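So, could you explain the following?
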Amino acid sequence: MQDTVQIENVESLKEKLLHFIHNELLPFEREHEIDSEKDIPMKHIIWVRKRSKELGFYGISLPKEVGGQSLSLKGLCVLKEELTKSGAVLWGHVLGEIGGPLRIGKMLKIFSRDQTERYVMPVINAEAGCCFALSEPGAGSDAHAIQTTAVRDGDDYILHGKKHFISAATYADWAIVIAKEIVKKGDERVTAFIVEKKSQGKSGFELGKIQVPISGERSTAELIFNDCRVPSSNILGDPGKGLLLGLSRINENRASWGATYLGVAQRLLNLSIDHAKHRVQFGRPIGEFQAIQHMLAEMATEIYAARCMLYDVIEKIDNGKDARETSSMVKVFSSEVANRVADKAVQIFGGQGLMKGHPVEKMYRDVRMFRILTGTSEVQKNTIAKELLKK
C-alpha cells in the first residue's frame, strides 16, 4: 500500500510539473528569448527559482524540516526526466540543481547551526546560489592531486590557487572549496571551506575566465583565490575530511544524472519519430523506410534498457544499499546511450540535423559532454572493474 501511495504522489507531482513547464516556463523562455548559448540575466534565473519555490519544486528532495518534501531519489529522477525531455533551457534551476539546494542536500548535517543560517537557508529559500569547487587544471579525475592551499593565519585561513570547470560558478554567492590545508611543513590534509564571493576589493574568490564548453552554455567558470582570507568558522565538517566530503556525493550524483541523460535521449527519440512521420522523400514519409525504422527501434530499445538500469539502481540507493559499482554502470551506460541516440537522430534528420541552432544539433553537442562530466566513462569502468575484482 505504501508503494502505491508513493507512486501516486510522484505521478501527481509529475502532472503538476508538466503544467508548470508548458504553461509557464516555456512561454517565459520564449517571451524573454532565453538562449543557453547567451548570457542569461540573473533576474530570469531568480524568477525560475522563486516560482519553483512557490510551487514546491525547488529543493523538493530536501528534508521537510528545512522546507523540502523529502522526495525519494526515484521521485526526483522521474521529475528530472520530464524537465530535460521538455527542452526547457532553465530546467536545472527548477529543482535547484544548478547552483541551488540540491548541490548541498546530502551535506546538510555537516553544516554548523551558524553556517546553516548564514549560507544554507538563503540557498534553500531561493535567495542565493552556491557551487562546489574541487576540479583544478592539474586535478580532474585524480582529485588527490589538488594544489589549492590553505594556511592558518590566526583565526583565519589564507587560500591560494585556482579551480576550473566549476559548474554554476557564474550563479554562485558562495562556494564549497576543497583545499590542501598546510598544517606544518610536511604535514598536509584536505579540508573543505565555505568561501564567499566578495566585491569591491574585499577578500574572497574572484570569478576567472568563463569556460564555455561545446554546448555553448555560460555557467561554468574558473575560481581564483589569491590571499583569500577565510575565517576558521567557515571550515565545513571536520578538518582533513574534505576529500571524503567531495566523494560522498558521487554515487547519488552519478545515478541521478542518468535521469538527465535519459530525458535528453527521449526527447531526441520523440523528435526523430515526429520527423520520420512528416518528412517525405521519394513520395512517402521516411518512417516507411526500413533503415529509418531500424534506427528508431534501436534508439527506443537502448533508452528502455538504460531506464530499467537507472531505476533498479535508484531503488537500491533509496533503500540504503551500496551502489558504488552499479551507479558507475548507470553513468557510463546512460551517457553512452545518449550519445548513440543523438548520432542516430542527426542521421535521421539529415542536413537539418547538422544546421547550427537546430534542436538536434544542439543536443548532439550537449550529449558529448555526458561521457566526461561527473566522471569520465573510463573512470567509471575502472570503478566497476575494481569492485568486480574485490568479489
Summary: Strands lie at 130-133, 149-153, 156-166, 174-184, 187-196, 206-210, 221-231, 235-236, 280-281, 284-285. Residues 2-31 form the longest helix (30 residues).
